[in-house]
Amino acid sequence: MFFQEPTPDTSVYMIAGYIITFLVMGLYVASIYLRSRNLHQDMTILEEMEEPRESIRPNGRQEPAKQNPSQIAK
Question: Most C-beta atoms within 10 A of its C-beta, which of 1, 44, 59, 64?
């Protein structure tokens, strides 16, 4: 008498929930991968900027080293 109704079939909602969950997790992992790749690119650019570059004139000769003004006065 009581409880004569069958249990409702909610398997479609469970499958939809799993699909949405895996999509969100996939987007999160992709976001982490892209951020990591961009971070490595930024680090490479910064390391290249830190490397000292020799000043070369247009005629191909190297520019003489600049002296400190306090050393010139001595």
Answer: 44
Query: H or E segment at 71?
Result: helix 69-72
| Contact present, 52 and 59 (Cβ < 8 Å) | no
In this structure, what token pair is assigned to residue 8?
């409702």
45-57 tens-digit pLDDT:
998 888 776 555 5
Q: CA-based angle 33:37:43, to the nearest 5?
A: 145
Q: How many whole angstroms separate alpha carbon 20 and alpha carbon 12?
A: 12
What's the one-letter identity of residue 21? Answer: T
Write the CA distances from 29 to 23, 36, 49, integer angstroms: 10, 11, 30
Encode pLDDT of 64-74 as tens digits. 556 666 655 55
Q: For the whole model, what pTM was predicted?
A: 0.56
